[in-house]
Amino acid sequence: MTEHIKLPELSTDEGFDGESFSAIYTTTVTVSGGVAGHGRASGRARSADGALGLDLHMPAELGGDGRGTNPEQSFAAAFAASFHGALSLVARQTALDPAVISIEATVALGRDPGGGGYLLRVDLVVKWPDIPPQIAAPLIEKATSLCPYARMAREGTPTTITLAP
After folding, report:
1. Alpha-carbon distance 96 to 131, whole Å?
2. Most buried residue among 24, 107, 123, 134 by CB atoms closer than 10 A?
3. pLDDT tens digits, residue range 22-48?
4. Is residue 150 scored above 90 in pLDDT?
5. What number is the average pLDDT over the span 134-153?
6. Residue 118: what are its φ and ψ, rounded to 5°?
7. Mean pLDDT (the chain, rounded)
8. Which CATH number, 3.30.300.20, 1.10.287.130, 3.40.190.10, 3.30.565.10, labels domain 70-165?
């Protein structure tokens, strides 16, 4: 028998008072080990709670064996999951069933033409069968404003990088 998951309340804009960031969830993932000489992440990614454990490998297109997850795949999964959640929330708020929604995220790694480093490009494709574009478009726009990954891509994300003592 399948147990039903209790869905969160449908609020998207209530209870957000204050002038500064207030975390409602925090997680830590550590990547260690692997071959670092090639400048690409390899090794093992593990969350502090042990729920996530990934072996990281270079994709075959970059000279790796391609037999494991790479950072771009992880990012694509996270972005698609986050956007799917945001769109599902706004669909439920308008009494639409989000069960048929799927999000396809394509992440491309490339050279930064202006800085000599690397950049990511993300393309999201929303698949929402039987929903007319004139109904889906404003809901996708609202989901874009709610999704933290979409906001990060559009506005940047405050980031600190420190050396541990």
Report:
1. 9
2. 107
3. 788 899 999 888 775 555 667 889 999
4. yes
5. 96
6. -130, 155
7. 87
8. 3.30.300.20
Distance of alpha carbon 132 from its chain centroid, rounded?
A: 26
Average pLDDT over residues 117-142: 95
Please say whether the structural domain 23-69 has been given the CATH code 3.40.50.2300. no
Has residue 106 got a pLDDT over 90?
yes
Place of tokens 């709610």: 146
Cα–Cα distance measured from residue 90 to residue 96, given in angstroms and rounded to the nearest whole number: 9
Domain with CATH 3.30.300.20 in the chain: 70-165
Q: At CA 94, angle to CA 24 and CA 90, rounded to 5?
A: 30
- Token pair belonging to 23: 């975390």
Q: Which tokens go with 11?
A: 């609020």
103 in helix, strand or coil?
strand
